[in-house]
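Our working data are protein records whose layout never changes between entries. The record below serves as our worked example for the rest of this section:
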Amino acid sequence: MEPAYGVGAVAGRAPRPRAASYRKNHPQWVLLLLTASVAFAAGMQLADLGTTMLGLQHGLVEENPLMAVALGSFGPLATVAAKLGVSVVLIVNCRRLPLRLSLPLAWAVAAIGTVTVWSNLIQLLHH
């Protein structure tokens, strides 16, 4: 018997398959839903970046305390790095995690991004 290697390896047992192999057991529409969800979430990150930059140019302040500190220290590049980082982490994790975790993760990021974009737009309209 060959030794088992990898995460969750137990002597005498084969390692658990990676999440991508779980995807073979799901219908095509579920995978399309995941792809669309991740694309929408990444799009919301881009829209958040755009509306945040537009708001900052028009004199609005960053309401997220962590991003406000980062903006004060590193300027607009901090916002770009944060949004790009969230998108990359989302894409990588949704490819590695099982669908029962990756779909809710994509939906959560999309929901937060959507609320943030609408908040930015409302503030811009009332400014």
